[in-house]
Amino acid sequence: MTYRFALEHQDYSDYSGGRVFYSLPGQPAFPVRLASEIFQRCLAVRQAGKLTEPCAVYDPCCGGAYHLAALAYLHWQAIGKIICSDIDTAALGLARRNLSLLTLVGLDQRAAEITTYINLYGKLSHVDALRSATRLKQVLARQIELHPLETRLFLADALDGAALRWGLDGQTIDIVMTDIPYGQKSSWMVSAGEPEVLHPPAWRMLEALLGVLSPHSVVAVASDKQQKISHAGYQRVEKFQLGKRQVVILKPTIV
Which band of pLDDT confidence, cut at 50, 70 and 90, is reported for residue 28? Predict the structure, then answer.
């Protein structure tokens, strides 16, 4: 793929998973530059429709919400609300910690935690992490002056439309941006007692999302190249690949 928006080879080390932002053990962090590129492509679709106000971004398979938390630092001015849900309660616990880093209180608590690690272990990696936290706090202090950024988190199966509607409670979703389960490190979880169905999980997630989208919503789904990301209720805006990962951007046609 060719980057259209995240053109500069920026130093994203302050946003590295496991440094200041929390990461799931054994789970590779979603690339920050790619997340920025996907988000900006979604913004371009919205801007083509004359929609420029800060948007509500939702991830129904948020995991630890690392990529959305990092994305907020990079594109704060374009984001008004970040909403996350997942079926995994452990992942939601980590997501809550990452979203707390979008507040000065949360970032101060993380810096104190890193300082404790420095005192206990004296590792240079922890010293570097504290420096990153200090730089992030300077960025965050400036961004908060622009406008507040609301966050919301709830437990839900991304394949269950009723659960998504209940959790979102009428909230308008402008951009759905999600990295769906694939490979050996993550897999789809299903609710207990759920009957077998004919459609694959990606289709079922798109079906569930239709109940919470508007005609102006944009949906970006990252997955491995083996998964088919399509549904009759959506129009594909674009598709691109980077390594073993594909990204499909869609707009709903039936809402």
Answer: confident
